[in-house]
Structure prediction request, 196 residues.
Amino acid sequence: MARRIADAMAGDFPAWFIQAQAQTALDDLPIPLLREKLQQAAAANAREKGVFCLAETINNVLMWSHYAANHYGIALQFDFQRGNAEQLLPIWKVDYQPVRPVIADMHTTIQERPLADALATKADFWHYEQEWRVMKADKAGTIIPFDRSIITGIALGAKCTAENEKLIRKMIGDSVVTLHRMRVSDRTFNLTMAAL
Prediction:
């Protein structure tokens, strides 16, 4: 609702006036309806955000199970110090907490710390993911081009098919990208990475 008011009055009225009008409109709503409207607005806002998630480790069995098609997929290795990673910056380390974050100022943007910190917070039971996030406003469902030289390696899942391996080898060609395959240990529940 605030966005609609801001769009309708953009350039014609000072921000303090627009904010006051939005506040007045919200003040008149019954609490259950206000909560519903805020939840709808928050969901709509989240759908507009593009989020690219990365992990610090490549040998976590749960990560391969959850995010790589039960070990049939691949994982990309990145070096953000190499090449031009500008399109994938800024990047936030996910903070794992037992309670949900609260954003006191609803007028913050994704580039401001309170909102970014809130969007980079997950429940503490996900801590094994060791996640980092790239978050871009208004980029949901889009592909953001970036310098491919920051990709340093590709790890094939333990169950990645020979057909997919052949396709990936063709895609990387003579590049300096290293190729590995994850292997399930015969004696433990660990994954190891073997060069191909």
The radius of gyration is 22 Å. Strands lie at 50-55, 74-78, 91-93, 95-97, 121-123, 131-136, 151-156, 178-184, 191-195. Helices lie at 2-9, 15-27, 31-48, 61-67, 113-119, 162-172.
